[in-house]
Structure formats: C-alpha cells, structure tokens
Design a protein that fits this description.
InterPro entries: GGNBP2. This protein has about 375 residues and is mainly alpha-helical. It contains 14 helices and eight strands. It has two domains: about 45-170 and about 315-370, no CATH class; about 185-310, no CATH class. The longest helix is centred in the C-terminal third of the chain and has 83 residues, at about 285-370.
Length: about 375
Amino acid sequence: MAKLVAVCRDEMDFPFERRQIPLIIEEALTMVMEIPENIFSTRFVCENELRDFVKRYGCLDLEELAVALMVRQKEVFSLLSHSVPCVGCRRSVERLYTQLVESGQPALEPLIISSSGILTVSHSFLKDPKLIYALFYDHGSRLNELVEAIPKSRRNRRCPLHSLETHKSRPSGYVFWIDVWDLLSQECRDEVVLIDSDALLDTLEHYLRKHRFCSECKSKVLRAFSILAGDLDGPSEKGFCPALYDGLKSCAQERHIHVLCDTDFIAHLIGRAEPELAGGERHAKTLDIAQEEVLTCLGIHLWDRLHRLWQKLRAEEQTWQMLFYLGVNALRKGFEVAVEEKLGISRLEQVVEEISEAERAKELRREQKR
C-alpha cells in the first residue's frame, strides 16, 4: 500500500526520490506519496521459458534493444484507451503521465519517461535479460488482472474511486480511519491535525443546520467555537469548562487550531462524531454543552479530512499502478515486435542464402559437364 511520507511545501524545490509523487489533498495541502518497491525476480519462473527469452533477447544488440524499448506517449495512450474502461481512470493516467513528462520525477522506476514524452526502461534493466524477463512476463500480465479486479458501474463503467456516488458516501468505523492514520508519516499526521478555523466553522454551521438548533443554542455553540478559535477569552465566559478543550490550542492570528497529535486523542474525537452523523434536533442550553458540540464537529471535520485523504491516496495509487503496468505492456509489445522483425529478416536472409547456394551448385555442375 502506498504511504504519505512528507508534506510538500514547494513542488519545484522538493527533493523527490524514487517512486514518489506529489498528491494534492486540499487546495493548500500537498503531500508526498511513496509507492513501495517492486521485487523483480526470476526465482519461480520456468527455466525453459527464461532460456528461450534470453535467446530472443540476444537477437538484438544493445542499440537495437534500446530503440525497441522506446514507446511514444501517443502509443501509450492508445493502449490505455483499449485497456481501461473507466473514463476517470483513463484521465487520471493521462494526467499523471503528462505530470511526469513535465516534472521529470523518477516515479515509475525502473520505467523512465523523458521530457519529450518517450517511455523507456532504465539502463541497468536494459543490460540484464533476467530483469527484463521478470519485468515483462511477471509484472506485464498484471494490468488485466488489476482492471478486472476493479468493480465497475453497469451504467457508466466507472470504477468506485471515480464514481460520484462514492464521493458522496462516507465509510464508517474505527478501522477505516486508523488504517489511513497508519499510512501517514509523523509530519503528515501533524499537518492533518492542524485545522483551519474557517474550514471548521463551515463544518460547524452545516452541523447546526442539519440538527436544527434553535437560535439561542446556535448562539451558544458559535460562542464556544469563538473561544476555541481564540476570538473570545474563555475564562471570562460564564459556564466555560477549560478541561473540555484540553489537547487543543488555537492560533488566532494564523486562524488555525492545533489538535494534539495522539492516536488515542484523535480516536476520542472521532468517537464523538460517529453517533452524530445521523440527523435529528439537538440543543445546547449551557456553554459547556455547547463546547461538547464544538468538539463533536471537530471530530466530524477530522473524519471528513481523513476520508478525503483516503480517497485521494487510493485513487492515485490505482492510477500509478495502471500507468506502470500499462507502460510495461507497451514496452513488452515493442520488444516482441522488434524480435519478430529481426528473426523474420534473419529467416529471409537464410532462405536467400540457401537459394543462392543451390544456384551456385547448379552452376558448378553445368561447368563440370562441359
């Protein structure tokens, strides 16, 4: 499973490593997604098949092989249109390919995309027939498996990650958010729990409308929010309970709220939110109850944020996998065509040579008869 390993403040200056790409989570938040390394091995392959491949590989010299393993962007996209039914997946793959052309990031190692849009393979793989074999005939078969394994809408052939219905729904339960949480580096976790005050206020106002708070209770909840955001002095407010806001710290000037980056604390906040996702009328007659409602909204806001992050991470990982396996397929086809052409020419030359030898033999016999 892909992980989020860093926060990307500036894509131009960030030192992306192998198999890392920027992932836009929100308008002002970009993280670095890292794909785990593939293991290329011929340990479990058929020796006869490998031996046959090495012979075919040997038909081409290094220069011919390099040319054979160069695929144009147009060819990749053509193969994409015939291989992937989901229009959302196709657009995502095209977007990622174009992104890698422009950025030059080594995100598909050992595949390489040049600044001119040419897809090829790294030099270390190019010189090793066993690695090429493992790449082509192990990983090259996985595109169809990946596409077939993805459920699709009968109506529009979209996959769940690019379906509008999926984006409207919200997975529930502790397991969902903790699974996402485990995929985040500490830096990413710190960023997730740094809450924009205005964004939290939007969540709060939606919550107040959904649960039909009366004007008096609504006023108290908004007052409790203002205390949390640092706009009002809590201790001077009647009924304020400081203990309820333990683990939370506001930066009024920066307009954000720091949530304690502790798994149990986050679980407690999200646990507050889960029962409140259904509708129904609610009240907050006292300030401490209003504070409780604000904490519930904070849990909902964190839950929604992790949900969006989970969707984007899964969608981008799927996009990466499709592009990688698609690229391997395109390279394999280029290799097979080049070998067939070379062997075809060799066989033709052999036939011509045999005909020439037969003609020379006939000519020799004629001369001997004379």
